[in-house]
User: Fold this.
Amino acid sequence: MSKSGFGSYSRFSAAGGASGDNGQPSGGGATPPAKPRRPKAQIQNIIPCCVNQLLTSTLVDNVFQIRGIEISQVSIVGIIRQAERAPHYILYKIDDMTSKPIEVRQWFDGDKAKQEIIPLPVGVYAKVFGILKCTGEAKSLEVLKIRILEDMNEFTTHILETVNAHMILYKARQATTGESTPVAPSGMDAAIDYGKHHLSFIRKEVLRLIHECPRLEGKSIRELQTELPSVSIRAIKEAIDYLTIEGHVYSSVDNEHFKSAD
Assistant:
C-alpha cells in the first residue's frame, strides 16, 4: 500500500492490468471445499501521470489508453490556476506546465452540498487522485481525493513515479504482446521535459513577483517564500541565483532583497 492509500501500480494480473489480492484464506485450519467463484472486476489502481498524457490519451472501446496502456484512475500534481464553486461541485483547473490546464471536478455528496465547502486556494500546488472522463471532445478528471502539496519534494517524486510507472506498465504490455519497442529513451525524455517545465515555472514566478514590487528596496526572499508557499526556500534561492546570473534581477539594500533589471 502506498502512502496515498490508493495502492500501487506495480502489481499486475496475467493480462497486464493492475490487480488486487487473490482472496485466498490465510492461516491454519482445514481447507473449505472449493466453490464456483463469480468473476471479480479487476481492482483499478492509481497510475501517476502528467496532464499532457491525459489530454492526449485515446479512447478505444470506451477505455482510455496512453501508448497502448489502459488507464482510468490516475494521479497528477500541478498548480491550481482556477477554483470555482458550483451548487454541486468545485471546478478546478490544474496546470503542471506540460500542456494546457485540465479541468478537475470535485463533486459533493448530499450532506456536503448543504455545507459551505471552501475551494482550495488558487496559486498553490495540489495533488489530485481522480478518474479520467470525457464529455464530447473535452477530457477532465473526477476527483477521488485532492490535497495541497505539503513539500515540493512530492512534485519531484511524482515526476519520477510517472516515468517509472509507465515504463513498468509498458514493459508488462510488451511481455504480453511480444512487442520489442524500447521505452527507456521516451521515459527519460518525459522526465527531463517535465522537470524543465517545473523549473521554468518557478523562475518565471519569482521574476514576476520581483518585477511587480514597487518598493525601492525591492522584494525580499522572505516575501517570495510567503507568496509562493508551495515552493521551497532552496528552489527560490536557486531561481534568484539563475536570474541574477542572467541579468534579470540584482540585489539592492542587502543579499535578501532583489529588484528587477528590466
